[in-house]
Amino acid sequence: MAAVLGQFMEFHLVHGTNVKLDPSRTQATRVESFANGVCFSKDPLSPGEIFLVEVEEKELGWCGHLRIGLTAHDPRTLDTVPEYSLPDLVDMGDSWVFAITRNHNKVIEDEGGEVEGGEQPNVGDEAENKPKTFFTDTHLYIENMSIPRDKLVGRSRPGRYSHILDDLYKTNALPPTARRSRIGVVYVPKGQEYADMHIIINGEDMGASAKKIPTNKPLYAVVDVFAATKSVRIVQVEYGFASLQTLCRKTIQKHIIHRMALDWLELPELLKHYCKYE
Q1: Is the pTM higher than 0.70?
Q2: Per-residue pLDDT tens digits for 104-150
Q3: How far is CA 33 from its chain centroid?
Q4: Which residue from 3, 14, 6 is spatially nearest to 41, judged by alpha carbons?
């Protein structure tokens, strides 16, 4: 069952002291240091609604990467935004955060089927050795929820070989911490009172990284622009019928060999840019 969703995603005006938002509030950049980069979604998420970001910019010299998760704390009620999502925000309770690494993001449940909220799950050889395949389904299915795949996988920078690189991106060959990588968080109800948190990386579900999250309070997305991750951009996911803009993009892309050919078409520059990068 697909959720009836589609709110325009923005970052909350309450954020870490080193974060600068662009005018649209869809891009968050850490302007100095490696910490104080915690951001929140403007509105609570609905069940099955993904908060998806793309890594826009990296910064060399730091150890660690993007962190993402959920919190039941309304950002407006925070006296101060914690310096770190892990451990500071998690230690406040009612928060579940996952640290993205270059490898080992797959979740393996212990014998009791539990995953500690706020802690990095373990990874097994079976998950790491799973063969990568081209995505043929139009949706990613998690339990009884479905998420359109169209925006879950990023695209390479426009160039002569971008059409080849884009196919590689679809096989999840792009490292999770790299630029253009797309990472999202979503929660899936488990009964009337609880939910599981899932992290989606480049179109692939990493499994339930936190379980039995109470759903009696609204849940906001948490994005920590931490260390080597310097800037992220929200990717809007369309549920239900595609917009006219998306239909135009798909029609144009279907009739060109690669994205550089867009420069030869007599189209508005904004439309060319949209077709190149989305």
Answers
A1: yes
A2: 899 877 655 555 444 444 434 433 444 444 445 788 999 889 998 88
A3: 23
A4: 14
